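In keeping with the milestone schedule agreed at the kick-off meeting, the structural modelling team has produced records for the first pair of proteins. Each record is given below as a sequence line and a structure-token line. The laboratory manager (R.T.) confirmed that both were archived under the project's standard naming scheme.
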Amino acid sequence: MVGLLVMVLLFASLLPSPSSSSASSVIPSDASALLAFQVKADLKGKLGFSSNYSLGFCKWNGVKCSEGKVVRLVCERVGLDGVFAPDTLTRLDQLRVLSLQDNSLAGPIPDLSRLVNLKVLFLDSNLFSGLIPPSISTLHRLKTLDLSHNNLTGNIPASFNGLDRLYYLRLDSNRLNGSVPALNQTTLQIFNVSQNILSGPIPVTPTLSRFRTTAFASNKALCGEIIHKECRPIQPFFHPSPATTAPPPHSAKAVSQNAQLRDGGVYSPEKKSTKRSVLIIGLSLGFFVLICSIICFALAAKRSNKSISSSPKIALDPSVAAAETEAVMRIEEESNELEEKVKRVQEGMQVMGKSGNLVFSVGESQVYTLEQLMKASAELLGRGTLGTTYKAVLDNRLIVCVKRLDSGKMAGSSKDEFERHMESVGGLRHPNLVPLRAYFQAKEERLLVYDYQPNGSLFSLIHGSKSSRAKPLHWTSCLKIAEDVAQGLSYIHQAWRLVHGNLKSSNVLLGSDFEACISDYCLSVLANPFSDDDPDCAAYKAPEVRKLNPHHQATSKSDVYSYGVLVLELLTGKHPSEHPVLMPDEMMKWVRSTRDDDDGREENGIRLGMILEVAMVCSVASPEQRPTMWQVLKMIQEIKDAAIMEEDGREMDLLTGT
């Protein structure tokens, strides 16, 4: 009996345990992702990935791993003839290098936003079609991007300018249309968008100006200084044209994206009112009401006249008859006068239509008319120094932002001056500027039409809603926003010799990818000197353009001062009216006292101090001692580059085990 028991125990010990058996049956997540990709992309079985993952998927052809995770996948010229299916390779969350070039993969490029560590992406020389996925713009570690020699259509995303480590960008030999975005990464060294159907003026940025004309070749409708081809201006006034499909309205990002700016602190933007009043933008409301009133009076008068003239003839006292005749004549006279008024008002409307048309900026498609704009459903967004801003939803579901300028503030400029200036401002195109799409003026009325930015203002992001106090942004978010604003201001100053004149956090808006975009730029030169009664405006102003010297116009150096104040507001979360005047050492202590100190790491404190130094040198009292905006941008980029090198160094240490 004992011998039998011993034999049973020995036999049982030779069997695999249930836990070990189940563990061995689980396919590693990266192996599963590779196999899922092979099923859809490798219809002829060229890759040779084996379902026997126990042999080590890290040894499969083209696969390289680090610590059991795929960091590199190179499958070039292997005859892939299927599709790059969603939810396959995008599960490789540690992937650094992906190359599928020189195959026959077809269909759209999937959402790549989960490949947050990707640095190199080669998808060229395939049969990919459809749009360039916007998700590529979220891959902020990307250095190399090649989508050339495919069948891609649509626009080049302007958000590519946010890929601030990009070194290599090739999009040539596709069917891309639209304009060339104002790329301005200092890192970009290789660039080609030739052999597409791009159109419009090429933005003159320091980065794009470095490349030869061959980088833009075989795009017949491109023009501009860079390729030595004069741009033909469009008709300055609106003419009826075939209906154009309007782009879909921007959608707000999830709260989680906003939370990333705060490194874990969820920021809840203030809810906009759900009640929307239908506002008639411009002068049409007054004219419309007047016309309706006059017509009503006219019709009433005509009815009275008709009823009197058609009444039975009755023998009346001569005096009564005379009075009645006089009344009839008076009514007829009043009726004619009302009709004349209606005619004059209608003529006035026609004159206004001729003298005040919706003027689209050069290169812009005329996707709506003045009439459609004035009939738009509108929501009040706010009142500022220069006027009132509305969110307008047109019949074709296009959403725009309309700024109605205060006629009193803008009385200092004539009609011709306004038109000439708006023509220059309308030519500004940069990822960190809210583009001016069109403008309108008639008599005292002036409207500006911009893109609607869905994620609110930087003021709301920094200070939170009225019911909740937001904590200061993480220093990396401060650096990113500071660079975005510096890019936009530097572009205005360098490329066009213009100035903003009214920079403040409420005039910095957040785009669809939470990029910082400057609004209300280059308008102060047309306005009467601003009043310092508004402390929100006065706190940003340089000493030389404050109330004591109201006739001094804003300059590029006064913009630099406002920028310095804005950066200090970013770092502390305090409104400029709350900023104390302190010595540098005391200022650093005060800034630290306003923050949670970003996880206490020494290098974070160093970077924070460097950003503060930039803010302080920008906001010195003497304009001559302030740097130019171009120099400021270089300082910010040096801080960013140093932070990136440190991050890459730590990553290399982790990969090598040192």
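The second protein of the pair:
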Amino acid sequence: MTADKWRPSLGLVVLGVLAIVATLPLFGLFLIRVYENGPIREAEAELIAQSAVLAAVTARAIEALPEPERVLGAAAPPPVENERYQPIQPSLDLATADILGRRPDATDPGTPPDPALLAIGAGLLPVLERTQGVTLAGFRILDRDGTVIAGRNEVGRSLADLPEVAAALKGTFRSVLRQRVSDEPAPALTSISRGTRVRLFTAMPIRVGERVAGVVYASRTPSNLVRHLYGERVKLALAAAAVLAAVLAIAALFSRAITRPIHALVARSHAIARGDRAVLAEPGPLGTREIARLSRGLDRMAHELRERSDYIATFAAHVSHELKTPLTAIQGAAELMRDAQASPADAMSPAEQTRFLDNILADTGRLTALLGRLRELARADNPDIRGTTRLDAVWAGLRRAHPGLIVEADGNDRTVAISAENAGIVFAHLADNARRHGASRLRITAQASGETVVVHVADDGEGIPERNRAQVFETFFTTRREAGGTGMGLGIVRAMLRAHSGTIELLPAGERGAAFAVTLPAAGAV
């Protein structure tokens, strides 16, 4: 019998499948969130780069003024020491960033901007317009007070109240998301610049030395998600293929581990129900641990039912034969006596009548013995297997039941998993067989062997001829039929032992007598 290999349980398979299925929506949400953040981060990075260039150009123009100190504002945070490069990384995230309301309109400033700065703004305006034509971004150049010095129709108006501008005027870069409200018609689905309902705003401080000279205020609507996804179509196709592969893997797993084995098990059970014995020679369907155990249990049950069916058929044939012989003899004797009584010419002598009556009594006695053994066999096939007993109690019972038989026993302290009554039936039949075959001494030894106890029973009787050794356990086989033997004693012993997970074996013949090895589970092993 091959060793069972590890198989996952049905619960483990279902749990694994559910875990995989549960991750698919989470993966989809994560994927969509990544793609939604992609255009935002991309637009923010572009605005940072463009604003940095405009801030540098504006700072150069302010430094070229005759007295640049008069237009400078607050001191900027000092740069990190020993750091030549101080990059600004995109940081906006739709999952965590607040989306502010639409950008408020510019207000009137407290003081008008410096004319020199207005001149610088007028010079930068063509650059801003050309940049906007390519990047689709809007730009405003603000002075140290947050007043617009370049930016179409908002020149001379203040944006200092905006939180992102206020932070930039103190020397800190700030980016925010605001709701986009437009009077224009709804954009096309694939619009590259107006396909979202938010607009990105960045405020980059303009540094001159260690002071803030103004702010580059830029804004842009991120590119449409559909457009972005189309650009990532290869990755999306790979992701879709991965999801499809996962679904197919789940389907294959269910089919291989559960569905196909169950269908095969159903077909196998139908074949067994039709009486197809050939299917029992093939291995049953496997799959999960539970299905494999169910398949083995079904096979074991089918084998036992087949053996029981064969046993019943054979048993019925033997019983009918054994009952028919004495019944035929009784019927024949009764008919002869009736005929003799009806015809005075054929009248029987008293001696003949006595002989026929003796035959009838002998045959009825044989029927009685046969029926008694049949009851014992039925009881042995379905015994109460509960209980344990010490072997010394069994040997004491043998000595009382067979006073003319010398019973010598070793290993009396062994305890076996069989009741005293059932153990007495087993060994009583062996002792009775030995006595009926001329034995005067019975030698018994018991030895522990792992979780079993092996009991050797040997007698000094006539022994078993070599030609009969293969048939001694067959029900109704006997060499003492004329002496009243039924041939059921060893069959009863084997049935009783089989019910208790035990065995009996005929040992090789010695110089005299017969020897058997009886194996029983030790107490506590079952």
